[in-house]
Design brief:
Radius of gyration: 27 Å
Helix content: 25-40%
Shape: elongated
Number of helices: 6
Strand content: 5-15%
Largest sheet: 6 strands, mixed
Order of helices and strands: HHHHEEEEEEEEEEEEEEEHH
């Protein structure tokens, strides 16, 4: 038990630059206290003392502001950072090395008892502030859930989920799409990549701009050809008066409007 607590304290010291000493973490970090309460409640739950498990869980919720059902399974080196208002459902599973921030819900969408209703988080998953992960699916190893995202479908390993409902930014060359690719940990699940919807809009804008450029070049070529064939009457024979010989598509302005 004490070796596991030491491991939990060390993971907090590694991931939170505000944590200064072991004593500070042991006495002032509700995320650590919530884990200690949960392990006792989970032991009671698994050994047939259901009410006692729920009561210990309730006491832990009162003191820490973190609600973890005693039936939930939590691995080693899990860090609940700040974590006020976190809710972890009965059949949820949290893998080793995960980081969960404040306001997160690992909830279920089914009302049937006995089935897997809550999500399973793989190893080293980051679930950022306010995110809701709802359903009995798997979030793969090393995945990131962005702030306030609402995730209702599986997330591949190493990918990042952002938005409502969540859209997936796939991993690149086997790496997570986060800002700290060298360390493997991304505080609050921050990503260098844009929102997928924004990327799609930017691609459409740039494609439209490219097409207008190509059309303008074609009309210029037709105009030159008409001048060569009929020097006395340029443009009017082959090029319509309203032909767009110059580009007017404001791609940069549109990209600014969509935040790109």
């Amino acid at each position: 038990m004490f070796s596991r607590i030491r491991s939990d304290i060390q993971c907090i010291l590694d991931r939170d630059p505000a944590a200064r000493t072991t004593w500070e973490v042991l006495t002032c970090y509700p995320g650590l206290h919530a884990l200690i309460f949960h392990r006792r409640a989970h032991w009671f739950w698994n050994n047939g003392f259901k009410w006692l498990g729920r009561f210990v869980s309730h006491v832990g919720r009162f003191f820490t502001g973190i609600e973890i059902h005693p039936g939930a399974k939590i691995g080693e080196r899990v860090f609940f950072d700040h974590a006020m208002g976190v809710v972890v459902g009965e059949t949820a599973e949290i893998g080793d090395g995960c980081t969960i921030y404040q306001g997160v819900t690992l909830g279920g969408t089914s009302l049937y008892k006995g089935e897997k209703r809550h999500p399973t988080l793989g190893r080293n998953v980051v679930v950022s502030a306010g995110a809701k992960v709802l359903g009995g699916f798997v979030v793969g190893d090393g995945a990131k859930i962005g702030s306030n995202a609402v995730v209702i479908k599986p997330v591949p390993a190493g990918a990042t989920a952002v938005g409502i409902p969540a859209r997936i930014i796939p991993s690149k060359v086997g790496e997570s799409a986060d800002v700290t690719r060298g360390t493997g940990f991304s505080a609050y699940g921050i990503t260098l990549d844009d929102d997928p919807l924004g990327q799609a809009m930017k691609g459409l804008v740039e494609n439209a701009s490219s097409q207008e450029h190509q059309i303008a070049l074609l009309w210029e070529a037709i105009e030159k050809l008409s001048v060569t064939q009929n020097p006395q009457s340029p443009r009017r024979d082959c090029v319509p008066a309203d032909a767009a010989l110059t580009e007017t598509f404001e791609a940069e302005k549109l990209n600014q409007l969509i935040g790109k």
